[in-house]
Automatic annotation (TrEMBL):
Gene label: rsmG
Similarity section: Belongs to the methyltransferase superfamily. RNA methyltransferase RsmG family.
HAMAP family membership: 16SrRNA_methyltr_G
InterPro entries hit by this protein: rRNA_ssu_MeTfrase_G, SAM-dependent_MTases_sf
TM helices/strands, residue ranges: none
Organism: Amycolatopsis antarctica
EC assignment: 2.1.1.-
Protein name: Ribosomal RNA small subunit methyltransferase G
UniProt keyword list: Cytoplasm, Methyltransferase, rRNA processing, S-adenosyl-L-methionine, Transferase
One cellular component (GO) term of this entry: cytosol
Length: 224
């Protein structure tokens, strides 16, 4: 599959890595349950470029956790386009963790792959206090905030890739987001000047800091 012109602008000299990633998805993505059969012809625009432009909302050198990474979206395209980032791919399913490890090894990316769920205490103790947590097609916004905001440092952000449902979810779930420690959910457009269909993100800042009691409990769990 030939890369569209926007791919060269987004990935620059690292375009060959993005092309290799797309080839891996083409060869085994459907067979391994990572993408649907109808998605193969839309890998670049709908998945890879759609994910890479998330980098527009991530500061230089940020520590990023990609929750429910699955096929590596958006984490792998983000790592390719932004090698300055420290990225962890968090995925609960063993077969998908195997796939992600294959991608990381084949492409030579400096990414950490962890098996687990965002809501697990051990994962929060191990990975918490990230600058940015990303999630794509994981859960409705209320659940996502509950699971993911504890992984975000105060002042950091949860970035959820959403489609047409973004405005509806923000209106419906804002109270639940606040209860989970988040500020006002904002809808942000990325890639509008490059992509035929821009990526729409819901960005939520973590506004509530961890209490001393919560910190002591987390530290005790880490020593157990």
């Amino acid at each position: 599959m030939v890369a569209p012109p926007a791919a060269g602008q987004i990935f620059g000299e690292r375009l060959p890595l993005a092309e290799a990633y797309v080839r891996m998805l083409e060869r085994s993505g459907v067979e391994r349950g990572l993408i649907g059969p109808r998605e193969v012809d839309r890998l670049w625009d709908r998945h890879v470029l759609n994910s890479a432009v998330v980098g527009d909302r991530v500061a230089s050198g940020a520590r990023v956790i990609d929750v429910g990474s699955g096929a590596g979206l958006p984490g792998v395209p983000l790592a390719i386009s932004r090698p300055d980032l420290s990225i962890v791919l968090l995925e609960p399913m063993a077969r998908r963790v195997d796939w992600l490890n294959e991608v990381v090894e084949t492409l030579g990316l400096e990414i950490t792959v962890v098996r687990g769920r965002a809501e697990e205490r051990v994962i929060r103790d191990q990975l918490g206090h990230a600058d940015v947590v990303t999630a794509r097609a994981v859960a409705p916004l209320a659940k996502l905030a509950q699971w993911c905001l504890p992984l975000v440092r105060p002042g950091g952000v949860l970035v959820a890739l959403k489609g047409a449902s973004a405005a509806e979810e923000v209106e419906r779930d804002q109270l639940a987001v606040h209860r989970s420690g988040g500020g006002k959910a904002e809808i942000v457009e990325c890639g509008g000047g490059l992509l035929e269909t821009p990526t729409y993100l819901v960005s939520i800042e973590r506004t509530q800091a961890e209490t001393k009691s919560q910190a002591r409990k987390r530290q005790r769990r880490g020593r157990e």
